[in-house]
Each structure stands twice: as structure tokens, then as C-alpha cells.
Amino acid sequence: MMVQNPDVVIVGAGAAGIGAGLGLTRLGVAHLILEAKQRVGGRAYSDTSSLGHLWDHGAHWLHSADVNVMRFMAEKLNHKFRPENPAVTSFRSFIGGEWKVSDFATDYVWTKLEEIAQAGRNGSDVAAESILDRGHATYPLLRHWCQLIYSKDPSELSTGDAGNYSDSHINLPVEDGYGALVARLSRGLPIRLGVTVKAIEVTGGGVRLETSSGTITAKACILAVPSRIMEMQRIAIKPGLPATLQQTFADVNMGYGEKVAMGFDRKVFEGFEIPFADVFDPVAPATRPLNFELHPFGRPIAVAHVGGSVARELAKAGPETMKGFAIDTLVKAFGADIRQRIVASATTGWTMDEHIGGAYSGAAPGKAESRNVFSEPVHERLFLAGEHVHRHYMATVHGAYETGLGAAHKAAAALGLSVGPKGPLWLPS
Question: Could you give the domains of the chain?
């Protein structure tokens, strides 16, 4: 049931907003979720139409799956995911003109990525680039993986932020779609789609929201929107955001990540079942490396991944440039005949999406601890939720979801309600 002027308004129906909605439902607090897009899920979106086969535009992996609340919810809903870690046995690299299961180059990349995080755990908060050898022959591939994992270039990546991330190294892809899972969790929640929030004014008794559908009042508001929206002040806050918080949105801002998906007339990558393939030419390091997921779950598709400045540049150049880059790189590894097998292609558009603006958050060098500011209430009536708010599960769906639960409890407490421990709150009862 929709409530026009509820106790709490949640802005954003991604994982954080849905988590907040489920939390308030369990607490018995009247609420309303406003979503600017015409769908739920935010950066978790499963596409079944563009290729004729399901692929995730955004989130796809249950990271740290052994402790990931979304994994347990998927199990409860019989939402399929791969039960073992495919990266352990299915990673291949096309380096210097030949396929390799493991070699010095890939070993070097994973060793250096771990050194970045370990430096942060040891108390360092500097640019990751400063502890890497930019002259190393494999540096372009290492840089590519930094961009994929953190959505930022090594020069922009804080070792401290990398070290704060809690990683069990168990990462499971979602066969039925991560976006589809998030959408299933939203069922039954009071969500209004296509409603843009323009301004939020904190008043003596609560909040007043100016939206594309009129004015809505409430006692409190949970802002579960991507941090880029707040950084760019696309939602005006009256009497304004605290200066420290506004600076934090700049210091812990969103990076960039995009995908290019291709559908084929049949399975064309023999021997590649859910593998993750890098294509890289160390003899010509100026040639950009590219990572692919080939035939995921046996589907006749390939998905290319780019991040950081490369993703930003390609997104600005447009879909055709993105597709050309991915297809040309496939040809290097599999030959020109692969072009004839492509029957459909599609790209993501997170960078240019006015309601998103990027991939996920990362702290600038020296600013790792600034992320804590996001957890503080704003003007006693506004509460932030989203992957950027989580100190240890940043850049993940389960991190966003958990902060939504936390914001729900903070909002309820601000209304004077007695609330117990939030618990995992996997599904509404």
C-alpha cells in the first residue's frame, strides 16, 4: 500500500534502498521508496533482451560469498549461482600470442594486487601507483586489473581503502542474474518508479521533498542514491550539506566501469566454460589489455570489462567505439572469423547515466578514513545508505544492502521507536 506522506521516505530503489525498505517493513514503520529510473535495482540490472540471453550490466558476483547475506537470500529463493569459485580453475590469459592457464605475468598481477591491500592493512594510505613499478612489462595488465576491481587507476587508488575491504576471496557469479535477485527482494515494497527527487528540506518536524510528482513530507529520509548524485549536488539539500560531508563526497567518489556484451550464433569458444580471459600483448604495452567472460554458464555470449579512466573514455566516445574495441581485441585472440559469428551486441552506460554516473566508490590517496563520515546522520533527519557508506564491504551489493538496514534502524530510532539489533534480516517475514 502506498503512503503519500509516510514516516520515512527512501530515495533510491537499489540494493541499499531495498534493504532500508525491508528493514522498515520489519520494524512496522510506514515508508515510501522513490526511484528516478523506471526499474528497481540501481547498479544491479539483469538484461534478458539485448542478446537473447541473460547478462548482468552491473553487479554479477557474490563477493566474499561465505559471509555474504545476498548469497543466503539467493539460497532461500532458489536463485541460482555457481556454487564454487570459478576463478580458481578457469582463468586463462592470451599473452604474447598464446593461451596460458598461468604464467609469470598473471602471477605478478595477483601478487601485486595483494601487496596493495596488504600495504593498507599495515597502515599505509598512499596512491597504489607509488608502490608499483610502472616500468614493469606487465604493468599495463596490472593497471587494467586495478581498474576492474576498484574502478579507479592506481594513481587514484588509496592503499588504505583497499586494505579496509574485507575479502574472503570466495567470489561466486549469479547464474540467474544479480540484478534479478535484487529485483525479487523488492517485491511487495511501496515503490514509486519514475519519480525524481529535486530537493530535500529539513524542517523543524521532519523533511519536505520536492519531486517530479509533487511535494511529499515525512519525519525522516534515507538517501540511498549513488554517491555521484550527492557529489554533484543533483539533489539540493536545505539548509545544505555539512562542509565535511560535501568534501567527503569528493574525497571518496565514484570510479568508472563499463561492459560490452556480444551474442554469437553458436558457442564459439571451445573449452571455455565460465572462464575469465585476459588478452594482453607485452611487446606492445600501449595496446590496452582487456578482460572477457566467455560462454558464462554455457551461454553463447562474451562480456568484456573495462574500468577506471579507460571506461570513462570509452563511455564518452560512445557505444560503437566500445563495441569496436571489444571486438577488435577478441579478433587478436581468436581470429577474424569471430566477427562473422556475432549476431548481437550491447553496451552498458553507467558513466553517462544521469541517475548513476559511474561504477562504485573509492577513496583518494590519504582519504581512506574519510569514508566513516558517511555513517553520520545529517541534520538529525537524513541518513545515508549505499555501498559508499560501508567501511568494509564498499563497492558491493551486500555492502549497500547492509547499510540500508542500518539506515532503517537509525531512522526508526530518530522517530523515537525502540529498535533491537538489526540482525541480517534476510527476507521479510
Answer: 8-43+177-253+362-414 (3.50.50.60), 86-169+257-347 (3.90.660.10)
Backbone angles phi, psi at 138, to 5 degrees: -95, 5
Looking up cell 539533489 gives 235
Q: Which residues contact 41 (CB under 8 A, 6 or more apart)?
A: 13, 14, 15, 179, 182, 183, 186
pTM summary value = 0.95
DSSP string for residues in 101-153: SS-HHHHHHHHHHHHHHHHHHTT--SBGGGGS-TTSTTHHHHHHHHHHHHSS-
The residue count of the chain comes to 429
Per the listing, cell 549513488 goes with 226
* Rounded CA separation 60/259 (Å): 12
Please give the Cα distance from 364 to 274 (Å, whole number). Answer: 33
Write out pLDDT tens, residues 352-396. 999 999 999 999 999 999 999 999 999 999 999 999 999 999 999
Quote the CA–CA distance of 312 and 314 in Å, as a whole number. Answer: 6
C-alpha cell at 256: 568508472
